[in-house]
Amino acid sequence: MHATRDSRITAGIVALGAIALLIGGAFAGLILEGAHDLSGAAAAFDGYLLRVPRFTLWQAALSTLLSVAPALLVARALARHPAFPGRRLILQLFTLPLALPAIVAALGILALYGRAGYFAGVFAGLGGGEWPGIYGLSGILVAHVFFNLPLATRLFLESLGTIPADQWRLASQLGMSARPAFRLIEWPVLRAALPGIAGLVFMLCITSFTIVLTLGGGPAATTLEVAIYQALRFDFDPARAVVLTLLQIALTFIVVVALTRLGANAVGDANLPVAPRRYLSAGRMESVLNGGLIVLALLFVAGPMAATVVSGLEADLGRLAGEEAVRRATLTSAGLALLAALLSVTLSLALIAARRALALRRRAGSAMSLLEHAADTGAGFVLVVPPIVLGAGWFLALRSITDVFAIAPVMVVAVNAVMAMPFSIRAIRPAYDAASERHERLCLALGISGWTRLSLIDWPSLRRPLATGFAFAMALSLGDLGVIALFGSDSVQTLPYLLLARMGSYRTADAAGLALLLGLVCLMLVVVADWLGREGKS
């Protein structure tokens, strides 16, 4: 009995140790560098250091407002019209930005609204002069709304779906119109969900790296994470990088604590219950307004994706496919993403199994032990430390020991694996707990444990959830630019890194072709993960 549980608990301890090593090593690098150069760290407190956190908070607040306010209206419009033409397709389309790499979305936005974008002539005509493009704060805001409006819409729609049918029946019997129905039935639910959803979007915006790097447009539009990257890769100012990193950690910690208190879901759910329900019939004017809202939101979200496809198809894809650099970057991306996904689901399964074993061993009514609490929330620690912060800490820790660019593969795999763990755990944990509930007594009675139990007893129930977590983790790793931006070099390049390099050298046609390739692969992986998750629930 104890052998079975001990093996799972041991695996969980190893997983927690790996997470602690990754985060602790980064912190050690930061602390040692700060202690080594105290005068430099003190000198880093200047006007620039004050301006960057201020812009980080400002753009996050604006992005949150511009994402959440329209999302509330779009969600209500979708809820009020369950028979809206193409409603299911629209909701599926709203899941795609979650899977699209940020650099691919940025390129699609530039293809639409950039200086040479498809709408450049329209904007130039409206402004009476040459269109300067969408770089700077405006570009950041558009990109953040593109990603977060669909997410917030689906989360608000999930909240509206929790309204009891009895309330709608009673409202219908009383002949209640749209305005009092919103005030008395819908708004209380939306108001309760609003702080958590707004907090989640705010968190995503203050930790946005790729969007700001590609669309920021200079020092005036720089966030903390981009400033950390610039301090290490361009200025090589470790003291400034340390101070910026500590500020970023403090900022994300405060937001994560606030999110926890608000009950926000930091992972989100791509499979929200969106089955049509018959509400009060909407009047003609309301139907027209709601339909217009839905169509505008659809065009806004679909536009950059369509632009990415069109501009990608205009590129010389045959020549790109034949380039040695592209083939090498593709193989590097695939290999690193494969290893990161495998490590992510392995660590996730170890934590899930350890948590279950500790919960079974705990007496009814007793408090959770520190180890059980760590196994339950250990993967959530990574939310406080963004990838660029982990990369910066290890960059500083290793630069005096070895060639930091030579260990790029190890850092990319390790950081991406841990950052994908919250998603993997979300996919695997319900199935593991259900399988344990069914088979725990049998395994204890027969003395089945360890690998034998996993392969013979648990595997049939875990096969699809593990594949779901694996596919999602691989998609996240394929599209990540945070760590490879610091550790990448001519010898180690991934597709996002190569895409960024082509954008930086103004080879926009090549960048568009690479974006199409990367976006299609990531979307395919997420579609597979979504399908596996749905099949596992059926």
Automatic annotation (TrEMBL):
One of its GO terms (biological process) is thiamine transport. Its main location: membrane. Keywords: Cell inner membrane, Cell membrane, Membrane, Repeat, Transmembrane, Transmembrane helix, Transport. It is a multi-pass membrane protein. It comes from the Bacteria. GO terms for molecular function: transmembrane transporter activity. SUPFAM superfamilies: MetI-like. GO terms for cellular component: plasma membrane. Coiled coil: none annotated. The keyword Cell inner membrane applies. The chain crosses the membrane at residues 12-32, 57-78, 90-113, 133-151, 192-221, 241-267, 288-313, 333-354, 375-398, 404-423, 466-489, 509-532. It is found in: Cell inner membrane; Cell membrane. Signal peptide: none annotated. Pfam families: BPD_transp_1. InterPro entries: MetI-like, MetI-like_sf, ThiP_ABC_transpt. This is Thiamine transport system permease protein ThiP. It comes from Mesorhizobium plurifarium.
